[in-house]
Fold:
Amino acid sequence: MTTGGGRLRFALTAALFVALGYFAWKSGRSVYERGPELEIAEIAGVVVLKWPHAIEAPMAARFAAAFAKYGDRTDRFVIDLDSPGGAVAEGRLVIAAIEATKKTRRVDTLVGRGAVCLSMCVPIYLAGDDRAAAPDATFMFHEPSSYDLVTAERIDKPGFEARMTSARFFERYFERSEMNPVWRERLKERWRGKDLWLTAEELVAEGANVVEALTE
Structure:
């Protein structure tokens, strides 16, 4: 039997969940209405999609919409990245949109002169059919981190859990990529507990097969 106090607590809890749901809906809608936009250009039959922002919502939705809109007008997309990285979950959705589009269209990736491709940007870059970069373009590899959704503060996971998360990330995004397998094994040792910064020119010199071609 539910007491008066119990009914009150239940009512307050239900009201809290309704309020949180409404807040999440409003926040999500706000992101899609006011979030960063893709910069889109059509050049000689090629559709260039430039993303000079963090890897965060609504990035995946923006790319999916662009692929759908321009898919009948081009056989080739070029994704021009300049990103400090961001959310693994959003990056996963972006990669899924790229992989779906690659079934019928060519999708290449590019990091231009003076641009950066850090953290979760790297797996997105690796999803390209052809991957080019300016010699001074900067790439950064590091093990995935977790952050509190409310405070945005970094969460330090227990050692075993952190290692498992890192191993899953590495397997999903690097072992299934076209990286040079020998260089990839070196990366597994080099990135432990630190940020590994390399220019496109250095990656090519090391034979990483992350960047396939340097642009002028």
Summary: Residues 4-34 form the longest helix (31 residues). Confidence is low (pLDDT under 50) at residues 16-27, 146-155.
